[in-house]
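Sequence, please.
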C-alpha cells in the first residue's frame, strides 16, 4: 500500500539514530529534516512545517515534552507528534500524552513499524 509522502521532522541528540530513521523514511518517499536539540527543532518546525514530528524526550536543552508543548501552542494545522524514546514507564507515557503527543513509541522501532506509523499519521486542525 502506497503512503502519501509527508514532511517529517526527526529530533534526536544521537545523530546515528536520526540518520537511520531518515534513511528508512526517505526510501519511502518522505521528505525529512533532522535536529539534535529542542531549539533547533522549534526553528526547523517554523520553516519546514512538518506533517509529522518524531521526537526524542531526552534532549540536551529542552525536553521533548517542552518541545511538544511549544509546537501545540502554534496556530495552524498541528503536526502529528510521536515520542520515540527509551523512556517507557507508565509515568513517561502519561507525561507524553499530557504534553500533546499523539503517540508514544519505545526505541528501537523497526522499518515496518515506522511504515505503519506513517500510514496512520495525520495532521489535525488547530
Amino acid at each position: 500500500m502506497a503512503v502519501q509522502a509527508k514532511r517529517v521532522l526527526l529530533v534526536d541528540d544521537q545523530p546515528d539514530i536520526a540518520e537511520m530513521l531518515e534513511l528508512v523514511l526517505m526510501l519511502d518517499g518522505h521528505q525529512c529534516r533532522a535536529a539534535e536539540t529542542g531549539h533547533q527543532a522549534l526553528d526547523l518546525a517554523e520553516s519546514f512545517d512538518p506533517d509529522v514530528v518524531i521526537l526524542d524526550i531526552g534532549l540536551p536543552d529542552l525536553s521533548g515534552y517542552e518541545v511538544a508543548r511549544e509546537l501545540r501552542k502554534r496556530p495552524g494545522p498541528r503536526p502529528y507528534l510521536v515520542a520515540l524514546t527509551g523512556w517507557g514507564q507508565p509515568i513517561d507515557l502519561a507525561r507524553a500524552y499530557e504534553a500533546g503527543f499523539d503517540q508514544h513509541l519505545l526505541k528501537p522501532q523497526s522499518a515496518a513499524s515506522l511504515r505503519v506509523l506513517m500510514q496512520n499519521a495525520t495532521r489535525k486542525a488547530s
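The mean pLDDT is 94.
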